[in-house]
Structure formats: C-alpha cells, structure tokens
Design brief:
The complex is a heterodimer of chains A (463) and B (248).
Chain A: H1 11-18, H2 22-45, H3 49-65, H4 67-80, E1 84-88, H5 91-104, E2 109-112, H6 116-120, H7 123-129, E3 133-136, H8 139-146, H9 163-173, H10 183-200, E4 203-206, E5 210-212, E6 217-222, H11 226-232, E7 236-242, E8 246-247, H12 250-264, E9 272-276, E10 284-290, H13 294-298, H14 314-318, H15 320-323, H16 336-346, H17 363-367, H18 374-387, H19 393-406, H20 409-425, H21 428-431, H22 437-441, H23 452-462
Parallel strand pairs in A: 1-10, 2-3, 2-4, 4-7, 5-8, 7-10
Antiparallel strand pairs in A: 5-6, 6-9
Helix pairs in contact in A: 3-12, 9-10, 16-18
Chain B: E1 2-5, H1 9-14, H2 16-28, E2 32-34, H3 44-48, H4 52-65, E3 71-74, H5 77-86, H6 94-101, E4 103-105, H7 106-113, E5 127-131, H8 134-139, H9 156-161, E6 168-170, H10 185-188, H11 190-206, E7 211-214, H12 217-230, E8 235-238, H13 239-243
Parallel strand pairs in B: 1-2, 1-3, 3-4, 5-6, 5-7, 7-8
The chains are: A alpha/beta (463), B alpha/beta (248).
Chain lengths: 463, 248
C-alpha cells in the first residue's frame, strides 16, 4: 500500500479540509452523483438487473471457493498459448518479477494502462528507483502521475481535479497553455505528448479486469484504447493481475461485461473490451498472478466476499461521504466504501479511521453489482478495530463510560437531566465550545422541561 | 397481544412529544401497550463504534425490561435494527431470541402488524417532505430505494400518511440520500456530517417543504440543528405526531 505516510489516516481532518474549497467540492459531488444517476438509468434499461447481480455474485463466490483449481486451469491454458505465468506472493515479489523481466529484455521504458494492483504494490516508485521510466497512458492516471498524486477514484482517478487544475499540471510538466481549460484541448495535448512515448516504449503493461480460467484469456476493459496500445506496441507485454480476477468460463464474461460499465460510468459497455490470449509473433506475453494479502482475506469469514469486487467504483459514486470528502482523504490506494473495507485488512492500525468514515447508510451495498455487503463489513471492521485497542483513547474511554451510564437507570436519569439542564442554562459561548463537535455545524435541540419517562410517571400517578 | 413500548434515549431526553404521540397513537388503535419504567438505551451507540463489550450492560438491562412481551415497538429504525441484527453482547437466551424476533419499528408495526391505514382524527394541512432514514430504507425495507429497480414500488410511511387529511407532499431531488447523522459520525466527522445535513434540508426547502416528516427522530434532530444554524424556516415533525392528530 501507499507508504508515503505511515501515521494513522485522519479521514475526518482531511475531509474537513476538502470541503472548505467550494468549487472543487461542488464539482466532485455533482460529477459523481451524475455517474450514479446514469448508472440508475442503465439499471432501469435492463429488466433483469437484479438477476445479473445475483448471477455475478454467485459466479464470483463459486470461483473464490475453488480458487486454486481455477488458477491452475488458467495457468495451464495460458502456458499452452505461449504465455509465461509468474506467481507473486506479495508486492515485493511482484515488483521484483517486473524488474527482472524488464532487465532480461533490456527495457528502460515502460508504458502502462490503468492498474490499481500496481498502485497497491507501489510499483512505479520502485521501478523509477531502478532506472525505469514509466508512463501512465490512461488520461486520468497520467494527470495523477504528472501531479505526483495517488488516484482518488478507482475508475476516474483525477475526478477531484477541475479542468483548470489539469491545465496547470500540464503547463508545469508537459508544457501547454495554463489558461486553456478546454477539455478537448487538454485531452489532445496529453495524447500528442504521450503517444510518442508509447510508440518508442521498450515494454508495455496492463492490468486485468477478468481472467478466464477456461481459455487462459486476459480481458481488459478501457474507454481510451490505451491498454491496447500499451500491450500491442512494445515487444514485451506484462499483465499484472490479482488472483481474485478469475472467472470460470468465457460464457460467464457476458454477465460481468454487462454490469461493469453500467455500474461504473452508466454507459452500456466500455469502448474497448480486449481479450489477450497469447503473445504476438516475435513478442512476449507475461502474466504475474499476485496474492498480496488476498488469500489471507479469503480465509476471513466476515471479509472474504470483498474479493468479489470488480472495481467499478459504483460504491464510491453513491457514497455521500466519499462525494463530500474526496478520494485522497482516505489516505490509501483504495478509497471510498470499498477502500474502507479493504485497507484495514492490510494495516488495521493505519486505516482504523476508515470504517468509521461512514454513516452505515448502506447505499454502497445496494448499488454493488456483485452484492458485497459493504456496510455490514464496515460494521464488522469497527468491532475488530475497537477490540484490537485501535480506537482513539478518548473515544474508547467515552464508550466505556457511556456503557456504564446506560446500563444503570439511575446514572442514566442523572446524566440526561444534567445534559438537559446544561443545554437550557449554560451561556451559548460555553455550550458551543471547541470540544462540541455537534455545535460546530448545528444547533443543539431545545431541551424539554421533563423527559418522556417523567411525563409517563406523572400520567400514571394521575391515573 | 401485550406490547412493550421502548422509547429511545434521545427521544426520552430531548423529544418526549414523540414518545407521547407514539404511546397515544398505539392506545387509540386499541393496542394493549405497556411502557416499562427504568428504560435507558438499546446499546447501539457503543456497538456501532465497535465497542461490543461496553454495550453488554445496556443490552442486558434492555433484555430484562422487555422480557415477556409478545411484541416490542420502538419509534426508531436504527435502534430496532441494532436489537434485531446486532444485539449479541448478551447471552442469546430464549428470551433474548424472542425479543430480537419480535421487535418492531413503529411504522413497520402500524403497517405490517396492525394493518392500520385510516387515521380519521389526523389532519395535517401542510406541504411536507418525507425523510426516510437509511436504516428504515435499506435495512428494514420501509420503502423502495432508488438503487434497486423494484417491480412494484412501495412506501410504508406513505401508505400510512395517505390516511391523513389535507397533507401535501413535495419531492426533493435526492430523496434517499443520507442526511449525515450516523450516530457518533455526526461528531467524529462533524464537517462532512454538517454539510450533508445542510444539503439535505436545503433540498427539501427548495422543493417547497414547510415540514420535514420522518419516522426517525435522530435524523430530524440533526437536520433541525442544521436548518436552525442556517436560518432556514423549516419545521420538523415525527410521523407518529402527524398520525396521532397533530395539526402543526
């Protein structure tokens, strides 16, 4: 995972900062909400939508429950088609394999399409340290690379940036007019500066959306065609894929292709759905199958179904907290609701705040095309974090005190009477102090003269 | 059927009128309802923060008070959801299991158990925006949600409010977006929470609502706080109050 800062992530603090910038906030919320609405539109156009979700979920759960068999089947098929298959236990092994392949082929430049797994492995900084020049070819990823920032969204990596931000980043790095914020201009400028790098690259890399066990095919879904260029221009194509990307049969692919882009962007299908089955004549194709914590998660009864994720980002688009805090506030490779249940599996102490960056509203679960019970996993993580002693000390103490007070009718009566009295009597300046998180953004309720219990006792007495 | 009335801690302390309306409404509808004295809380605040052991005393107290009822009714979706799905800090005795299987949120109880549809005493001549809490919507399935394409759209609170004379509804642009309360989320993530609440009440205000009505007082408490801070002239009322005949 991104190892730039090892302090625990302060989501609340980062989110509070994000929302002070109204232009960015409004754009971010509006843009992602539009994606959610487009997704709803697509859903209404597919009467069997819920059936597709059920199928997708069942296929993934079936595959995960027999993962070793399907992985071996996939490997055998890939090898039979002339692909070289490598296994990586963790990020370090993955990165070492990539570097070895590049060195063996005397490759100094690498172009790659979108891959969250390589972000997870922190591959780019590793390769750069070893003298490899890496170029992201997806527009959003390229913007993030040039700005030296992580992707803030797994599908639209620079969605937190305005066009003016992009113009500034380009002007600073690849030239161009810092004041021209026309989208076509910016996209074209990126294209003409990136295309020669693709043409000359020594090696190309792609991720994988799906690995088909039956055929050994790697399926990559993109909208820019950059994966095809990255894979097909250089003589060396390296695929980096998590072991959870397996599906059993070619026939299963139809289910996923129908739900992926509809859930992600609200478009019926991605512009390109490319199937890579083997190396071109005179070229090499390598697939690195990466575990990096996945088999451990597969063994966790409450969390294994998070491996069903097809990285569509629908949970992020619908999440009211994500839309108002931005992906970078999660301080992790995976942001939003899915990130909040994946990241703690890697480092519960560092990501302890993330399962609490949610109101548990459940919208993420309801949009998820593979039916991951995201909000229930958020709840389950909270318990693990609290029981592991990873709550902020003040909160842990407050909970113990609250538990004791609420277990006793007498203490409860005293505490709530005191609270009512305080709100009624204390001067505003004292009541709305800096420790009163509620009062920073809201008025406190007007306290009644008596509690319901007191009213009820009075009524009973009166008969 | 002997019914226990459970009143959530924040309603008991800050919104007794909601508890009163709930009790009076159940009595009007002929329910044999009992309010056991000495109630505190359901344990949700601790459990939702992962502190399950800190919730055990509170859950045990709740279980003791409500043992022996045929059903328990509570005007709060999130408390009911906690008791039904998460009340596991106490031993799962037969009594606890009976309680968890027979606890109802108020709208659910009126709609599904009593099958109540007519409230001849109720009249509410105002423009109202309905706020369904996320737990009511997505955990208790009180109404269809925009994320799922239901073949037959439904809304239990709307079925009940249809029996109120003079009431008119306005539709906000994001009707089932969370309002941002989320229990301790409202203070841990106060900036995002406050913004969500403000945007929620602004959405209702733009749609022309005079009142926001909900079956969940916790959402209303938060939204009311946001609206007051922003100086919006919105008013907030619990569905039990309207069904019980409140005129304003």
């Amino acid at each position: 995972m991104s190892a730039k800062i090892h302090d625990p992530v302060d989501h609340a603090g980062a989110a509070a900062k994000f929302i002070t910038d109204e232009a960015h906030l409004t754009f971010h919320d509006t843009r992602l909400w539009e994606m959610r609405q487009k997704r709803d539109g697509q859903m209404h156009g597919v009467p069997e939508w819920q059936e597709l979700r059920d199928l997708a979920s069942a296929i993934k759960e079936h595959t995960l429950s027999r993962l070793p068999e399907y992985l071996e089947q996939f490997e055998a098929q890939a090898i039979a088609h002339g692909v070289q298959v490598h296994w990586a236990r963790d990020a370090a092994e993955h990165n070492a394999i990539v570097l070895r392949l590049l060195r063996e082929n005397n490759a100094k430049t690498l172009v790659k399409s979108k891959s969250m797994l390589t972000e997870e492995c922190e591959m780019a900084p590793f390769l750069e340290r070893h003298g490899i020049t890496l170029t992201e070819t997806d527009l959003g990823e390229r913007i993030q690379q040039l700005d030296n920032e992580s992707p803030s969204h797994i599908v639209v990596p620079s969605v937190h940036k305005l066009r003016a931000d992009v113009a500034r980043v380009f002007a600073k790095t690849i030239g161009g007019d810092p004041n021209n914020t026309d989208a076509t201009y910016l996209a074209e400028h990126c294209r003409v500066t990136t295309r020669p790098l693709m043409l000359d690259a020594d090696a190309g890399m792609t991720g994988a959306n799906f690995l088909v066990a039956e055929t050994g095919a790697v399926v990559v879904c993109t909208n820019e065609g950059n994966a095809d260029l990255s894979a097909n221009l250089p003589k060396l194509h390296i695929v980096s894929a998590g072991i959870e990307k397996l599906i059993p049969r070619q026939a299963d692919l139809g289910v996923f292709v129908r739900i992926l882009s509809r859930s992600a962007l609200g478009s019926p299908i991605t512009q390109y759905t490319s199937h890579f089955r083997g190396p071109r004549d005179g070229a090499q194709m390598h697939i690195i199958l990466v575990d990096n914590g996945r088999s451990k998660r597969l063994g966790q009864a409450e969390f294994w179904t998070s491996l069903k994720c097809i990285r569509c980002g629908a949970c992020m688009n619908t999440c009211p907290v994500y839309r108002r805090s931005g992906g970078l506030s999660y301080g992790a490779v995976y942001s939003g609701p899915i990130g909040a249940i994946i990241n703690p599996a890697y480092d519960p102490a560092r990501y302890a705040a993330l399962p609490f960056a949610s109101t548990l509203n459940g919208s993420c679960t309801a949009v998820c095309p593979v039916k991951i019970n995201i909000h229930e996993q958020l709840y389950a993580w909270r318990r693990i974090i609290a029981e592991g002693g990873l709550l902020p000390a003040q909160k842990a103490l407050a909970m113990r005190v609250a538990g004791a007070v609420l277990a006793s009718p007498t203490l409860y009566r005293l505490a709530t009477a005191a609270a009512r009295m305080a709100v009624r009597r204390l001067p505003r300046a004292l009541l709305y102090n800096r420790l009163n998180g509620w009062g920073r953004d809201r008025e406190l309720p007007t306290p009644p003269k008596e509690s319901f219990a007191a009213w009820h006792a009075r009524r009973k007495k009166a008969g | 059927m002997r019914v226990g009335l459970a009143i959530p801690c924040f309603i008991d302390s800050f919104f007794p009128e909601v508890g009163i309306a709930t009790l009076e409404l159940l009595e009007r509808l002929g329910v044999d309802v009992v309010y056991p004295q000495g109630q505190t809380c359901c344990g949700q605040p601790m459990a939702n923060n992962g502190c399950n052991s800190a919730a055990s005393g509170t859950e045990a107290h709740f279980a003791r008070l409500f043992a022996g009822f045929d059903a328990v009714v509570m005007p709060s979706a999130s408390c009911v959801n906690h008791l039904r799905k998460h009340m596991d800090a106490v031993p799962q005795t037969a009594e606890v299991q009976h309680l968890r299987a027979n606890i109802y949120e108020l709208v659910e109880f009126l709609h599904d158990v009593l099958n109540a549809r007519e409230f001849p005493w109720a009249e509410f001549p105002h423009k109202v925006g309905l706020h369904n809490s996320c737990t009511a919507l997505r955990s208790l399935h009180a109404a269809s949600i925009s994320e799922i394409d239901e073949t037959t759209p439904f809304s239990k609170p709307m079925d009940l409010l249809a029996g109120v004379r003079g009431i008119a509804f306005v539709e906000p642009t994001r009707p089932d977006e969370c309002c941002g309360f989320g229990g301790t989320f409202s203070v841990n993530e106060d900036a995002v929470s406050g913004l969500m609440g403000l945007e929620k009440v602004q959405d209702h205000a733009r749609a022309g609502a005079e009142y926001i009505v909900s079956a969940d007082t916790s959402c209303l408490m938060h939204q009311q706080g946001c609206a007051r801070r922003a100086g919006l002239p919105l008013r907030f009322i619990h569905i039990a109050q309207i069904l019980n005949g409140a005129r304003a």
